[in-house]
Amino acid sequence: MAGVFFLIFAGAGAQQQYLVSYLSRITPWSGLQRAGLLAVVYACMMFFRIGNLYLLRRWPDWKWRVVGSTTYVLFPAGMALLAFVPNYWLALGFALLWGWGATAMWGGSTMEVLALSEGRRGRHGLGMGLIYSATHAGFLIGVVGLGLIYAHYPQHPQLLYFTATAVTVVGVLVSLALPRTGEAQIDPPSAQVLWQIFRNPGARIASFLLASSALAYGLMLGAFADFVTSSYGAGWVWITAMFFPAIRAVCALLSGTISDIKGRGPVLATAFLLGAIGCGLAAAWDSPVAMAITAGLLGLVNGSVPPVSASLIGDAAQRRRRPLAYGVIFAWTDFGVACALIMSRLLLTHEQLQSIFVIFALVFTLCGVVAALLGRYPQQRM
User: Fold this and answer.
1) CA distances from 40 to 92, 106, 110, 113, 138 (A)
2) How far is residue 133's CA from residue 17's CA, in Å, rounded to a whole number?
3) 176: which residues sit within 8 A by CB, 6+ positions away?
4) Domains of the chain
């Protein structure tokens, strides 16, 4: 499973880092339109976190994973097509399809990993940490590799997307070879049950923290590349951006494992407070070095929160209830990314990116305090 996520995110996952810049080369679309395309992907994911509970309820976990992973091939292939047919409605179609499929792949895979970790003394943090670490490691390799292609072939930017598509195809083929799990195990969804899950204090806190940590990811995908290009040159984009997935890969594994031992709340609180320091550094120091350090600390936040939050679901929800809890809580991740993509683009139009980092520093400080409250609800079931 880890190999599947490594390959898919070395291709389709990593291309996101260059999408906004790539579209500026091949289309006349505005910065808001370009960032808005990724925002549509994550808004669609937010919708289908819940929608797929109804649409795919009778599918076993492996089918969610396999069918969803195919859309990771279609999106970069579609972006390569835009170099020849720059149609915004076509791009939106690929974005909507990918949003649905990404939700399916992550939902099915997460349930498989949580079920597997049941046999490992309930070490959900280790299981989810391995998957997220492989995801971020693949993203890192992809950011560097695709970035080199992008920099060395400026006259043929679509080569980046042909390469991303080919790498992703290999990941999907490996996914097809994995053992298939049994029958679907999902309690019937209803508005009453979903609201009951969200009313759980631990679920609310996890939702808030996921939305906040996703702001860092949205910022990296949205305004970061354009800001670094305009301020320090295109050659600095992959150099500074690589620290984001590099630190994410390490922290995903460490945070999940440590949270199994020390508890979920302390790990999350530490990650957010370090992220706040990183944002403060970027606001005070105008330098590509500062941007690289900040990208790393943002990676620490975004690398730690999802695996620990998924582990919380494994701790607090029964097997058949987990897909519902996962959908309710992780929808806020997509909400955070979509908001950051649009907000960072709008603010960058009028102000320097340093102003955005001041806002993020304040938000992450608040999150650090809120994360400490998780310890008050260790035994509550979702």
Assistant:
1) 7, 17, 23, 28, 23
2) 18
3) 66
4) 2-376 (1.20.1250.20)
Task: Please say whether the beta carbons of 174 and 39 come within 8 A.
Answer: no
pLDDT per 10-residue tile (average), the chain, 382 residues:
92 88 87 81 88 86 90 94 92 94 90 73 71 87 87 86 95 90 72 83 82 76 68 73 81 79 80 86 78 84 82 75 83 79 61 72 87 66 62
10 Å CB burial of residue 289 (0-12, 13-18, 19+) is exposed
24 Cβ contact list (under 8 Å, min separation 6): 31, 34, 226
Neighbours of 46 (CB within 10 A): 23
Question: At residue 234, what is the residue type?
Answer: A
The count of other CB atoms within 10 Å of the CB of residue 230 is 11
Both tokens assigned to 205: 């806190």
> What pLDDT, on the 0 to 100 scale, is given for residue 311?
76
For residue 276, the number of C-alpha atoms closer than 13 Å in the C-beta half-sphere is 16
pTM of the model: 0.80
Predicted pLDDT at 379: 53
Distance CA 276, CA 244 (A): 15
Q: 3-state class of 317 per DSSP? A: coil
Instruction: Identify the CA nearest to 140 among candidates 1, 296, 22.
Output: 296
Please, are residues 103 and 48 in contact by the beta-carbon 8 Å criterion? yes
Amino acid at 50: I
pLDDT of residue 361: 86
* Size (the chain), residues: 382
pLDDT of amino acid 7:
95
Q: Note the pLDDT of residue 350.
A: 43
Return the structure tokens found at 41: 């992907």
